[in-house]
Description:
Elements: H1 3-30, H2 37-49, E1 59-64, H3 66-72, H4 79-90, E2 96-99, H5 111-124, E3 127-133, E4 144-145, H6 149-154, E5 157-160, E6 164-165, E7 171-180, E8 185-186, H7 188-197, E9 219-226, E10 238-240, H8 241-246, E11 258-263, E12 271-272, E13 283-284, H9 285-297, E14 303-304, H10 307-327, H11 330-355, E15 357-358, H12 362-396, H13 412-437
Parallel strand pairs: 1-10, 1-11, 2-3, 2-11, 3-5, 14-15
Antiparallel strand pairs: 3-4, 6-7, 7-8, 7-9, 12-13
Amino acid sequence: MPKAARTRTQQRRLEWALLALALLCLVAWLSPPQQMAGLNHLVQDLGLRSLARPPHPDIVLIAVDDRSITSIGRWPWRRALHAQLVDVVTAQNPKAIGLDILFSEPDLDYPLDDALLAQALARSQRVVLPVLQRNQAGLMEGASELPLDVFADAAAALGHVHVAPDGDGVVRGLYLQEGPASAPWSHFSLALQCVAQNAAARCKNSPPTNSTPVTPPHWTERQPELIAYAGGPGHYPTYSYIDVLRGQIPPNAFQGKFVLVGAVASGLGDTFATPVSSGARLMPGVEVVAHILDSHLSGIRLKAAPAAANIAFNLLPVAVALLTLLFAGPLTALLASFGLGLGTLLMSMALMRWTGWHFAPAAALLGLVLAYPLWSWRRLNAAAHFLRTEMEHLRSEGLPVRNSPWARRGDFLERRINAVEAASRQLRDLHQFVSNSL
């Protein structure tokens, strides 16, 4: 190999090594999900939508809806009505009842209703009540807001109903354990499963009572998990609260099922933006609980991929693309980069379904987008430098290289190509002249 060719080869490999090192370092640094959260959330939402499935047959909702509000009156309702509802549902022998309504203060207007509700909870032994984290003016942020002691003692279990919205306000995950560091609460869905599988007494923990506030530093969040939504809002069979009270439901509507009771009426209760919400439609909190319960009953558990696995997932396609750029032609490298990008997207969604790990592929996609143009720029720059150098060599050797007007048209690379083409034509003419002369 001529010395000049060896030099160019060494220069090309050095430039490729520097580009590969810089690009792989950039991809590794951007691999954590929070680094490119917007694009990672977009891919994550596509993966979550791909997990859509029919509703679990053991989940049914009772909705505090607008029709019930119109029939019964404005919220909050008398607790005697809730006691009646618990008795009606318990009579059909459900697995567990999730009453997603907080009873943290006594009913001063109807004090006897508290006793009626507590008795209904005690008779049922299947009711789970919610726990909240105080975050209101005048209250200590980070303290547990529990049901009244009379309700907490009568309930089969308590569970927190918090979710963990991302920076864009969309609810994609939660913590399965939240609360005081010494005794965190299990999520509402886990408490329902515990009641369905065990005696009620085994599903209770003993954190501080209502009168013992927990300061913010002691509030803990453990076991993060992504929510494998089964579908959009209104995905589960739902009965109106007023229809249940009136007995206008099938006789076995709740038999052997998890029954979730919560507010879905306009302006009542928590509503959340979710990856599966269509348009501006929000999902009531009780439906989010239903989706979490569904994923656990269906055996679908999603978590963020470990940091090392996520970095390797992002580096692999970029490394393959860089090797393709080094050894393959421009068209092959372009098609390979496009194919690797599409494959990375599809693989991230497939691995979510197969392994339960969510990978954040935004860094890999950025690396694939940058690799081809950066390497093409370096090769174009090397080509232009080579053409210019060859023209200078021709002139330095005394060859009659003329600059024709058309050779000065176009961009810098086209001008160099035109100049070399003109010189080549002159050399061919000179060769023809010498051959004819000889």
